[in-house]
Amino acid sequence: MGNSKIRCFLFGAIIIMLFVSIKTQAQNLENGKKIYQTKCLVCHQSDGGGVPNMNAPLDGASNVIGNDIARLVKIIKNGFNERVELDGLYYSNSMTANPDLTPAQISDVLSYIRTSWSNKATKVTTVQVQQAIKGNQKTSAK
Q1: Cα R_g (the chain), whole angstroms
Q2: Cα–Cα distance between 117 and 6 in angstroms, integer?
Q3: Where are the domains of the chain?
Q4: Which class in CATH covers the domain with range 2-134?
Q5: Residue 114: which of 40, 43, 53 has the closest Cα?
Q6: pLDDT tens-digit series, residues 104-117
Q7: Neighbours of 137 (CB within 10 A)
Q8: What is the pTM of this model?
C-alpha cells in the first residue's frame, strides 16, 4: 500500500513539473513576441520577411535558424552597421543596438524568432545568451 502512495505522489509531482515547464516555455515565447513587436517588427515586419535590400528577413534565414547563437546575441545587443549578404541577397540598413535587453529577454526574443513563421530551430537558453555576452564561443545551438 505504501509503494502505491509513493508512486501516485511521484506521478503527480512529475505531472505538475511538466505543466509548470510547459507554462514557463509558453510565457517565455509570449514575452519574446512582445519584445519582437516593440523592438523588431518595424524593420523585420510582422511576418519576419524584412524589407528587400534594406532589412534582412528572419523567416527562413540561414543565420537565424543556424547554430551561431553567439553572433545573433551580439547583433541584438550591440547592433549591426554593415552591408550584409544573407542567402545570396544584400541588405544595407543598420540595426539599432539593444543594450537594455537582459539575457532572459534576448533568450525569449531569439526563441520566439527561431520558432516562428516557417522557422523550426531550437530555442535559445539564458545561459547561451550569457555565454555569448561574455565572449564564450560555446554557444552553439544543440
Answers
A1: 18
A2: 44
A3: 2-134
A4: mainly alpha
A5: 40
A6: 999 999 999 999 99
A7: 9
A8: 0.80
Per-residue cell: 33: 513576441
Q: What is the pLDDT of residue 23?
A: 52
Closest C-alpha to 81, from 68, 93, 69, 64: 93
- 16: Cβ–Cβ under 8 A, 6 or more apart, which residues? none
- Cα–Cα distances in Å, from 118 out to 14, 74, 78, 115, 133? 32, 23, 26, 8, 27
Handedness of CA 84, 89, 95, 100 (dihedral sign): negative
Torsion over CA of 134, 31, 33 and 26, rounded to 10 degrees? 110
User: How many whole angstroms separate alpha carbon 7 and alpha carbon 66?
Assistant: 42
Residue with cell 545551438: 141
